[in-house]
Input
Amino acid sequence: MTNASTKPFKIGNHVMDNRVVLAPMAGICNSAFRLTVKEFGAGLVYAEMISDKGIVQKNEKTLSMLYIDERENPLSLQIFGGEKETLVEAAKYVDQHTSADIIDINMGCPVNKIIKCEAGARMLLDPNKIYEMVAAVVDNVKKPVSVKMRTGWDEEHLYMVENAQAIERAGGSAVAVHGRTRVQMYEGHANWDLIRQVKEAVNIPVIGNGDVNSPQDAKRMLDETGVDAVMIGRAALGDPWMIYRTVEYLESGLLKPEPTVQEKMDICLLHFDRLVALKGENIAVREMRKHASWYLKGIRGNGTARNKINQTESAQELRDYLRYFAEESSKEYEEVKSIVI
Ligand SMILES: Cc1cc2nc3c(=O)[nH]c(=O)nc-3n(C[C@H](O)[C@H](O)[C@H](O)COP(=O)(O)O)c2cc1C
Output
């Protein structure tokens, strides 16, 4: 293993313990999930994107999304917006009223609802606007400011180098690059070579993102692009071990074993309990359905389990079922093992 894989990296004055970062994911990266992933060793966690207007208008639900457990830090809190005034006001609020360590601006979200507001990936077409937005936020907050962006709008408009340089000139402290264009949405492959081009063009830390699906992918991205850290999104869904196994692999070159069904269900239950504490039973039971199906991925009998979980209405019912499923699966595993051995 090269030292380059394990070297800590810095954003502003914040030193991260390692180079493995949890990606921001809307509807997923709330405190319950982030803390769980953090405990699996993530060097930095990103919160889900939060609307600048929701913050400025003090929308109750939006403000509740700003909750951070102190065990999560270092944490980057991402805001989105297409107008300078509200973006700055929201950033000031995050700066003064939250324990986030870094304020991140979303310049990658590809969905129409966000693009129509001139926010998210819309900004990728205009390096001057990126400069203005980042400079205005940097001038008004104390916390370091970063941007998460895509490589460009489409194959004909790949302005990632100009955009990253604009972020750096404007005083941005880091940039995360998802190696897809807006038009690609989540299809095709992330182009890591374009991420490498950004890394070579700026002096601020660059976090590479897109299609890191295994610890080996993480190492390959660090080696091939020279980025300061790797950001993992979908591969961590229902699988915080992906973070732990990646940190371990980058440190020692050893691949830790995959978790057992019992371990998966234990963490699923812990995640669920945190979600109940954060959002209350009704919302947690509904939100946990998608998470549970990710935790169950690849486990025998998961189809039936998913159906059962989707019909579950109370927290106790869900807990009981997850415990029952773990027990049954473990029994089955022991039986198979005794036959094979
Ligand atoms: C369900 C979901 C929600 C996402 N929400 C956000 C978000 O709030 N902010 C953001 O910058 N990117 C968001 N992304 C993009 C991810 O952060 C990441 O860039 C993308 O999934 C590619 O990385 P991966 O291949 O490791 O998943 C989201 C992705 C998914 C799948």
Summary: The longest helix spans residues 315-340. The two ends are 35 Å apart (CA to CA). Residues 23-26, 28, 48-49, 78, 106, 108-109, 148, 178, 209-212, 232-235 surround flavin mononucleotide (CB under 6 Å). The domain at 261-340 is CATH 1.10.1200.80 (Non-ribosomal Peptide Synthetase Peptidyl Carrier Protein; Chain A).
